[in-house]
Amino acid sequence: MSAILETPVRAFESVSGAGAGEMLELAIGPHHPSTHGVFRMDVVLDGERVRRLKPVFGYLHRNHEKIAEGQSYLSSMPYTDRLDYFCSLTNNWAYALTVEKLAGLQVPERAEYIRVITAELTRVQNHLCLIGFLLQDMGASGTPLMYAFREREKILDLFESLTGARMMCNYMRFGGCRVDLPTGWMEEAQQVVQGLARFLDEFEALLTGNEILMARTQHIGVLSSAAAVNAGVTGPMLRASGVNYDVRKVDRYGVYDRFDFRIPLGDHGDTYDRYLIRVLEMRESLKILRVALRDLPEGPVMDPKARLRGFRPKAGEAYGRIEAPKGELGFHLISDGSPNPFRYRVRPPSLMNLTVLEEMCMGRMLADVVVILGSVDIVLGEVDR
Amino acid sequence: METLEEICFRIKTALPAARVEIIPNASPCGQRSLLLGREQGLAVATFLRDDPQLRLDYCSNVTGVDWLEPSLPQGFVQSPSSAGLKKEAGEGLGESGTGCLEAVYHLFSMAHKNGPVVLRLRTENRLAAVRLPSLTPVWRSCEFQEREIFDLFGIVFDGHPDLRRLLMWEGFQGFPMRRDYLVADDFECEPTPHGDVPKRMSPRQGCAEVIQKTATADPRV
Amino acid sequence: MRASDEAFFNFETGVNTYLPVLVLFLCAAGFALAPLGLAWLWAKRFSPTKPGPDKNATYECGLQSKWDARIQFKSGYYIYAILFLIFDVETVFMLPFAVVFHRLSVGGCLAMLFFLFLFLEGLLWAWKKGVLTWK
Amino acid sequence: MEVTDQELKIDLQKQGVLMTSLNELYNWGRKNSVWPLQFGLACCAIEMIAASMARYDLARFGAEVFRPSPRQADLMIVAGTVTKKMAPQVVRLYNQMAEPKYVIAMGACAISGGPFKQGYNVLKGIDRYLPVDVHIPGCPPRPEALLHAFMTLQNKIASQPLTGPARPRHLRAGAPSEFSVPQCGPHGLVPPSNPAVWRPPTAAQAG
Fold it and tell me: Which residues in A lie closer than 8 A to residue B104 (C-beta atoms)?
C-alpha cells in the first residue's frame, strides 16, 4: 500500500541523466488535437519515453460554482448541461437527485422510468463518442468517428424531440421531468435501440478483433485495483481494473433495482479492457432500455406538490451521486434556507480519473500517452467546471 | 453500516486524544457529519481507512466551504436540540468569532459498499490561521481537490505533496470562491439604450483599493 | 547496326542528338516553375508578407516556448539511424541482382551472396552490442 | 438597351462560354477551400465536430479539413468559452496563422461570455482581442447555424475587391496581421481589452 502513497517528487527541475542524453521538456499544451479540449500536460521526454508528466488544468474554468451561488436552484439546472457537455441528461439527473435529497421530494413512477431511459441513452451515446475519439487518437482518423457520430445523431434526434435541444436538454426538474414523452417517441426509441444493437455487432466486428487496436492498447496504461480505489477513480476505468463498484448497484437510486443488468469487470486494467468495458456497458444499457421502454408505466411526469417558483429548501446539506457515463458524478449542496444555494459543489469524475494519469504514462512512449488519455475519457467542461 | 455514534465512540477508544463531535443535519436526507480537531485529523483519517469494520477506502469528494459570518455554522446545521452542545464545545466556531474555512470529506467504503461518512475540518479563522492537515497521504483522490480548495478558498494543507493553484494561473492573487471576493470589473455590462443597468447591479467595484482589502497575501509563504 | 540502334540515331540530321531530351526537360521544368513564378509575382504585387515576432515564434500548442528544442539526443538514435541507412542503400544494390537473377552464373550469385553476408555480419555485430534493444 | 455585364455573362454561360474576372477567380478559389484550425474549447466544439461529420457534412463547403497547426489554417473557429487563462494562447495562435485569416466566434460564450458572463475567469467575448468576421449566436449553435456561418463567410470573401481602398486587410501592407497578446495579471488580463480592436459600445439613448 505504501508504494502507491509515495507520490513521485513533483518539483519540475530539468532532469538529465548521465549519458542518456538530455531530457526534452515539452508542453502537450492547451491547443492540441489529442487532448480532448483545452487540457495541458507538461511532459519531460527522454527520447520517446515519458519520464515525468504533470497535468495543468484551469483553461476552461468557467466558475460554474460561483455563478450557481448567485442564482436560484432551478436556474442552475441549465448550467449542469454544460458541465459534461456529452451527457447533459445524466448531469441533470445528478443535480435533481441531490436537490430532491436535500428537500425530501418524491418523484412519480413514470418520471423515474423516463430518467432511466434518458440516462441509459446518454450512456450509450457517450461511450460511442469515446470509442470514436479513442480510435481517432490511435490514428484511424475519421472512419470510426463517422460511424459513432452517425449513431449518435439518431440518439440526439430522440433527445431533441423529447427535450427540444440536441445537446443541452435542461429536461429534469426537482420532483420529476419537465415534459411528458411526445406521441410516437416510444416506438422511435425502440427502433433506435434495435438499430444500435445491430450497429454494435458491426462496430465490434470491425474493432474488437483488430490487431492494430490490440497492439496499441493491450498492456498499455495498466492501473492496479488498489491504486484505482485509493486515487478515487470511478466508472468504467475502475471496473476495468477489476473493482466491482457501480453506483447504480450500490446506491440503488431511481428504479435501477427493477432491472437485472450485469456489471462488466476487466482483469488487466489496461486500455484494451477500458475499451471493452465500454462496449459491454453499452450492451447492458441496451438491455435496460428494452425492458424500461416495454413496461413504462402511465401517470404524471412531475410531482404535483413540487413548487418550482420560490423553491426554498430547509437549511441543511446533502451529497447525492449517480453513475454518470464517466464515473461517479456527485453534487454537494449546502442550503441556508434562502432560494440560492449556500455552497454548490460538483464532484467531477473526469478530474478524479486524471489523478493517476502520471502513474499510467510513466515510462511509456509519447504515442501511448495520447491513447491512455483517450481511454480515461475526460471532458474539460467537467474537469475545470 | 454503523451509526455515527458508534463510529465516534470507536474513534475515541482508538485515539483518545482525538476531538470528535457530531454535527446534526436538518435536511431530510439526514447525512450528519463528524467534526474533527485539526491536530488529530490525519490520525483519525488513517484509522477510518485501515479499520477492518469500516474500511472507508474511497474518499469521493472534498468540498471547501467559506463560513463568512460566525453565526452561520449553527444557523445552517443547528437543530434546536443541540444548541446547548455548541456552547461548551466552543471549538467548532472560529475562536475570534470571525467565521472559518472548512473542508468537508465524503468517505465511502468500496469494500463494504456502504454509504457516506462525512468528515469536517475547520480552520481557526479566515485570515491568518488557514492551515489544515492534508489527507492526501491517506487518500490520493484528495490531491487535486485539496489543490482546488487551496486555489479557490486559500486553505493551506500541510503535508500535501504538491500544493499549487489548480485552476487559476500561478500569478493570480486572491481566492475567488470566498464570499467576500469582489470580481474584477471587466464584467461591465454593455450599456443598453435604457442606460441604468450598471446602477441596478450589486456593487461590483473592481477598482484597485477594494481588491487590496480582501486577503491577497500568499498564505503558503 | 542493329535495328534498335537504328531508331535511336535516325533523325533528319542523322547526328547523335539529345535535343528531344533537352526539350522535354525544359518543358517539365517550365511546367513546374511557371505556377510558382506566377504565385511569387502575385504575392509581390498583391499580398505583402507580414512577418512578426509572434508569427516567427515556434508554435508550442499556443504557449510561449521557454525551452530550446535543440538538445543532445540519446546516442542510440544515431546508431539506429545509421543501421537503417545502410540496409536502405543495400536494397538499392539488390535491384540489379534481382533483375538479372534468372540469367546469372554461379559466380555472380556467389558474389552477390558474399555482398549480402557483409551486411549480415554488420547486423550481427550491432545485435550483439545491444543497439537494437530499446531500453 | 444597355446590356450589363451580369446579363452578358449569363447569356454567354448559356452558350457554354464562362466569363469571369481575375478578382472573381481569386476569391472563388479562396472561399471554397477555407481550412479551419482545429480549435475546440468547449461544448460548441462538439457541435462543430458534429457539423463536420457525415450528416451535416461541412465538406460541401470545402472546410472539412481541420488543420491542427495554425500555420496551415485560414480560419479560426473560436468554439466555446474563452477563459482569461486561455485568452493569451488564443491570441498567440491567431498571430501565428498565415494571412489571409478569418475568425468565426461560435456560440454565445465566444461572442460575449454567454451564460458564464459573471465568471471571474471568463473573457467577455473574443472580440476584445481579435477582429471577428462572423458571429454565430446560440449555446451551442446548431450545426446548421455553423453551415450558415460558412456561407456568410464565403459571401464576405467573395465580395472582397483585389485593389482599391476597400481591399481586405491581407492585401494591405500597412494593416497589422498581429495583435498584442494580453498577459495574465494579478486580478485579470492586462490590458483588459485591445483598444486597437475593441471599443466599448456607447449607449444610444432611446427616444
Answer: 317, 332
